[in-house]
Design brief:
The protein is α+β, with helices and mostly antiparallel strands and 420 residues long. It has helices at residues 14-33, 47-54, 59-64, 83-92, 95-98, 137-153, 172-185, 192-200, 202-206, 211-216, 229-244, 289-292, 307-316, 336-351, 365-374, 385-390, 411-419, and strands spanning 37-38, 44-46, 67-69, 75-78, 102-111, 123-132, 159-165, 250-251, 263-271, 279-285, 300-306, 329-333, 356-358, 379-383, 392-397, 403-407. The protein has 17 helices and 16 strands. The strands form three sheets. The chain has an eight-stranded mixed beta sheet. Strands 13-12-14-15-16 form a five-stranded mixed beta sheet, sandwiched between helices. Bound molecules: histidyl-adenosine monophosphate.
Length: 420
C-alpha cells in the first residue's frame, strides 16, 4: 500500500522550500516596515465562528469548509481564511484594550474543499494582515500597499489593482432591493447559479464569471453609484490617497468578493501571469464584524494573499527565488581516526555559526570530494593521519581552485578571514 497526498494538497519539498522562505522573509520585512506584528491562531476553530463571519450562504461556508465533529461532538472547522480567527483572538484577548489600533499579520495554511486546479488547492497558504480600531481610509490603502510592496520587493510588477465600495448597512439594503428588482426582470437570461442567488445574495450575481450572466447584467445598477454620503466620501478618500501614492488602480463596480463581512472598500489584485485563477490577493473593510462576533464596535480592514499563486507568478516571470543554503565547508576524512576528528571539528564549526558538513556514508576520499562538489560547498578540508600529526592541512577554495594552508587549531578564524 502506497500512501499519497490528499487531493488538492502538496508537499513543499526541500527544493521548493528556498523559494517559500524567500517569500516569507520578504513578507516579514515588509510587514515590519509597516509596523505590523505577527499573530498565530489555531488551525481549527468552532464552526460557528466562520459561519457567522464569512456568511452561511457564501460558497466557502455552504460548500467548501472542512467541518467535522471532534470526539466530544463539538463541530470544528479547519480555518478557510484568517480574518475570522484573528478577530476572535482580538476579542478573546482584549487586544483592543492594550492599544487603540492593533495591526497584525499572519502567514499560514488555510483549507477549502474546492475543485483543485492550477492555482487552486484544498490546503493553500496565505499571508495577510488586519488593522483593527480605525475607520481611516489610509488604512484601506495601506492594505493595498502591503501586498504591492511584497510583490515589488520580489520583482513582480505585472499586476492590476481593482477597487470598489460595497456600501454599508445604511446604503446596501436599498441598493440590494433595487438590484433584486432588476435581476428579477432579467431572470430568464441568467444562469441557474445566479438565479438561485437573486433572493439571498444578489450582489454575487455581479461577479459571476458566466459570459451569459455578464451580458445580461451589463447595465444593471452598481452599488458604487448608490452609496450613502459617508461611504461615498470614504471611497473618494481611498481613491485620492491611492493617486497621491502613485498607485495605479481600476474601479470595478462588479467587484463584490466572496465573503459577506465587507463594508465600504473591497479590493483585489490580479496577475496576468496567472491563468483562470488570477486573483493574487483580496481584501476590504469590515466595520461591523468585530461587533457581529461579540466584541465592542470596532472598525477593521485587511487583506490576504495566496502564496502558491505568488510562487507561480515568480516562476512565470523567472524571478530569482532565493539562494539554496549550502555548507561553507566540507571536511573530508581519509581514515577512521580522521573521521572522528572531523566529526568533532564539524560540530565546533557549526556551533560557531559556520555551516559545515562531513561524510556519513563511509565513502572513499574521492567520493567525498565528489559529494562536496555536488553540494557546491565553498571550501573543502582534507584530513588524514599526516594532517592530524602536524596540525596543519590545506583548505581548498572550490570557487577559485586555490589551496590555503591552515592550522587545524585555527580553522574557524581562517575560514572566516577567507569567507568574509
Ligand atoms: P479570499 O479572496 O478568499 O480572501 O482569499 C485571498 C487570496 O487567497 C486569494 O486572492 C487567493 O490568492 C488565495 N486563495 C484563496 N483560495 C485559494 C485556493 N483554494 N487555492 C489557492 N489560493 C487560494 C480572504 O481569505 C479574506 N480573509 C481576505 C481578507 C483579509 N479580507 C479582510 N482581511
Amino acid at each position: 500500500m502506497k500512501f499519497r497526498t490528499i487531493k488538492g494538497t502538496k508537499d513543499i519539498l526541500p527544493s521548493d522550500a528556498t523559494a517559500w522562505q524567500h517569500v516569507e522573509r520578504t513578507v516579514r520585512q515588509v510587514m515590519h516596515a509597516f509596523n505590523y506584528r505577527e499573530i498565530r491562531t489555531p488551525l481549527f476553530e468552532q464552526t460557528g465562528l466562520f459561519a457567522r463571519s464569512i456568511g452561511e450562504l457564501t460558497d466557502i461556508v455552504s460548500k467548501e469548509m472542512y467541518t467535522f465533529p471532534d470526539r466530544s461532538g463539538e463541530s470544528v472547522t479547519l480555518r478557510p481564511e484568517g480574518t475570522a480567527a484573528v478577530l476572535r483572538a482580538y476579542i478573546q484577548n482584549n487586544l483592543g484594550e492594550q492599544s487603540p489600533l492593533v495591526k497584525v499579520y499572519y502567514i499560514g495554511p488555510m483549507f477549502r474543499q474546492e475543485r483543485p486546479q492550477a492555482g487552486r488547492l484544498r490546503q493553500f497558504h496565505q499571508f495577510g494582515a488586519e488593522a483593527l480600531g480605525s475607520p481611516s481610509p489610509s488604512l484601506d490603502v495601506e492594505m493595498m500597499q502591503l501586498p504591492l510592496e511584497v510583490y515589488r520587493a520580489l520583482g513582480i510588477d505585472a499586476c492590476a489593482l481593482n477597487i470598489n465600495s460595497v456600501g454599508c448597512e445604511k446604503c446596501r439594503p436599498a441598493y440590494k432591493q433595487l438590484l433584486q428588482t432588476e435581476l428579477e426582470r432579467i431572470r430568464q437570461q441568467l444562469s441557474e447559479d445566479s438565479r438561485a442567488r437573486i433572493a439571498n445574495n444578489p450582489l454575487r450575481v455581479l461577479d459571476s464569471k458566466d459570459p451569459a450572466d455578464r451580458e445580461a447584467t451589463a447595465h444593471v445598477p452598481l452599488i458604487k453609484d448608490h452609496l450613502c454620503d459617508e461611504c461615498r466620501d470614504h471611497f473618494a478618500a481611498v481613491r485620492r490617497l491611492l493617486t497621491a501614492a502613485g498607485i495605479p488602480f481600476t474601479i470595478d463596480g462588479r467587484l463584490v468578493r466572496g465573503l459577506d463581512y465587507y463594508t465600504k472598500t473591497a479590493f483585489e489584485i490580479t496577475s496576468t501571469a496567472l491563468g483562470s485563477q488570477d486573483a493574487l490577493m483580496g481584501g476590504g473593510r469590515y466595520d461591523l464584524l468585530v461587533e457581529e462576533l461579540g466584541g465592542k464596535p470596532t472598525p477593521g480592514v485587511g487583506f490576504a494573499a495566496g502564496i502558491e499563486r505568488l510562487l507561480m507568478v515568480l516562476q512565470a516571470l523567472k524571478r530569482p527565488a532565493g539562494e539554496e543554503p549550502v555548507p561553507t565547508v566540507f571536511i573530508a576524512a581519509m581514515d577512521g581516526t580522521a573521521r572522528e576528528w572531523a566529526f568533532a571539528a564539524c560540530h565546533a564549526l557549526r556551533r560557531s555559526g559556520i555551516p559545515a558538513e562531513i561524510d556519513y556514508l563511509d565513502r572513499s576520499l574521492k567520493a567525498q570530494l565528489r559529494e562536496a562538489n555536488r553540494q557546491q560547498v565553498a571550501f573543502v578540508l582534507v584530513v588524514g593521519e599526516n594532517e592530524l600529526t602536524t596540525g596543519e592541512a590545506r583548505l581548498k577554495d572550490m570557487r577559485s581552485g586555490t589551496d590555503h594552508p591552515v592550522r587545524l587549531d585555527a580553522l574557524e578564524q581562517t575560514i572566516r578571514s577567507l569567507h568574509g
